[in-house]
């Protein structure tokens, strides 16, 4: 019948829209996508609010079993697929939507706030953002830096960069598996602190193309946006690499050129003891002359 | 006491969040911002749904009388300021928030979907958008083209550009005013058709720097996003300059480099008779060699 892809917004059970709530309550089955983001509350609170049973859809379920568990029932029933934020924000959901349409299942979308919109609460204008990048967890052997070129291009054009920070949910525990047990590692969410440390390392030790300056470029750490405990902290990467923003989810913005009105809002979020001058030429200070002239 | 800045989302009265609805219903005064965007429904339907009287806040009220009409009451009462889309999406609202904070009024924000998020419903990934631009109405004497450079920079970096189209609400009627009457022109909303025509003129007759190609570059027209009559139409600018997408609001996307998954969704929106090949190298086809090499 219909697959409803419903955005839950960012905070708790009350951030769903009235339309979304109506549809969840009419649905025959309810899934909650739980591996590209997290809400500030547990599934049980959502279940109580909707008066519905919710099935958690982890990566395995969506990528391997969506056909039988979600799409097959959606041919004859109303299936609600709940997504933290907005349903058009992640590639996975586009894929699910396409597969539904191929099976002639009607797809209806209910939009909501996402981190890409809520990031504007720090005072930076959403118009001025470029490419959004993802920063993955590093380990000793694997230190991908593919986001760096995009940050550089954004900043050369005066644009801000929203960095989405890695989430590791339901990662297999290989040690346990070698002993024949199926076990998963506890979930990990990258903090602003870790992201800032990795960004400093890319710039200072690995690529060194002055896409940004760890001691000068204005950056903004975001934690639990849209939730009552939301925290916003502004400063240099060096300052943010020591800041503690508390529990997940975190995101980080690397500023481009800032307008006065933007800085007016950002200044109240400066981390204690910050030495940042909040000058509005953060675009150029860290770029070599050849880049400035382009 | 508190100024609540509450996003209404994009469609009708049911697109407010449950949290937002609770706050509106508890508010002592309710304003609706009505000059940077519009909902698909009339104020009266909102009033009936909230069981509240709503004061329309036009540009004059917000820019000249916010102090006395909105902020002064907010010192001792709960004032809800409703915004179509999300409250962090327009500079005007940032300004109001700052003025409230200067008067030590608590400001609370309720996020919601905005056009910048809902634009993802056409299949383009929100990660791949650069600078958002505004396209103003032209007249015989005044043809501003400041958006052009940003579109060019976005496309050179492979990014899509969301173009917000001009809205003229409560523009003074100078003819009537010269006769001593205060009168306003009927509201005007730029259509995808007009925007495409202006974009063709900038490229073909005014700036000619091949930021895009009116016969080749993939573009997507969006109308009434998030509403039941939502319409999405893809094609070249030449094709869109003849397309009729119906009533407001419209927006337009000029695509950068498209990934296969994006094109997979976009192809179902191709305008009838479109000659677009949906090749995924729309980034480069229109750029001169020197730009490609950079």
Automatic annotation (TrEMBL), chains A, B:
Query: So what EC number does this one have?
Result: 2.1.1.314
> Which of UniProt's keywords are assigned here?
Methyltransferase, S-adenosyl-L-methionine, Transferase
Give GO BP annotations, semicolon-separated: methylation; protein histidyl modification to diphthamide
Q: Which CDD domains match?
A: DHP5_DphB
Q: Which residues form a coiled coil?
A: none
Catalyzed reaction equations? 2-[(3S)-amino-3-carboxypropyl]-L-histidyl-[translation elongation factor 2] + 4 S-adenosyl-L-methionine = diphthine methyl ester-[translation elongation factor 2] + 4 S-adenosyl-L-homocysteine + 3 H(+)
Is Methyltransferase among this UniProt entry's keywords?
yes
Q: Which domain of life is it from?
A: Eukaryota
Q: Which residues form the Tetrapyrrole methylase domain?
A: 2-240
Q: In which pathway does it act?
A: Protein modification; peptidyl-diphthamide biosynthesis
Q: List the NCBIfam families hit by this protein, alphabetically.
A: dph5 (TIGR00522)
- Which HAMAP family does the entry link to? Diphthine_synth
Function of the protein: S-adenosyl-L-methionine-dependent methyltransferase that catalyzes four methylations of the modified target histidine residue in translation elongation factor 2 (EF-2), to form an intermediate called diphthine methyl ester. The four successive methylation reactions represent the second step of diphthamide biosynthesis.
Query: Under which name does UniProt file this protein?
Result: diphthine methyl ester synthase
């Amino acid at each position: 019948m219909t697959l409803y892809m419903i955005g839950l917004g960012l905070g708790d059970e009350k951030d769903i829209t009235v339309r979304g709530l109506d549809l969840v309550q009419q649905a025959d089955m309810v899934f909650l996508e739980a591996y590209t983001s997290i809400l500030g509350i547990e599934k049980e609170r959502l279940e109580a609010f909707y008066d519905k049973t919710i099935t958690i859809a982890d990566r395995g379920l969506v990528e391997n079993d969506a056909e039988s568990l979600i799409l097959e029932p959606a041919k004859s029933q109303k299936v609600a697929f709940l997504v933290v934020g907005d349903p058009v924000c992640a590639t996975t959901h586009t894929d699910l939507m396409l597969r539904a349409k191929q099976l002639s299942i009607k797809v209806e979308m209910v939009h909501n706030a996402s981190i890409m919109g809520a990031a504007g609460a720090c005072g930076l204008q959403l118009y001025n953002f470029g490419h959004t990048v993802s920063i993955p967890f590093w380990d000793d052997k694997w230190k991908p830096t593919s986001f760096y070129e995009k940050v550089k291009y954004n900043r050369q054009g005066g644009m801000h960069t929203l960095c989405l920070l890695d989430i590791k949910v339901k990662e297999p525990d290989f040690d346990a598996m070698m002993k024949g047990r199926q076990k998963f590692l506890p979930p990990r969410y990258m903090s602003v602190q870790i992201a800032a440390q990795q960004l400093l390392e890319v710039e200072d030790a690995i690529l060194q193309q002055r896409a940004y300056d760890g001691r000068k470029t204005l950056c903004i750490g975001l934690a639990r946006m849209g939730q009552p405990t939301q925290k916003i902290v502004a400063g240099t990467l060096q300052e943010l690499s020591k800041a503690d923003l508390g529990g997940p989810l975190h995101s980080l913005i690397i500023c481009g050129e800032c307008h006065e009105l933007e800085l007016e809002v950002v200044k109240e979020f400066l981390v204690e003891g910050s030495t940042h001058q909040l000058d509005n030429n953060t675009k150029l200070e860290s770029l070599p002359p050849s880049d400035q002239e382009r």
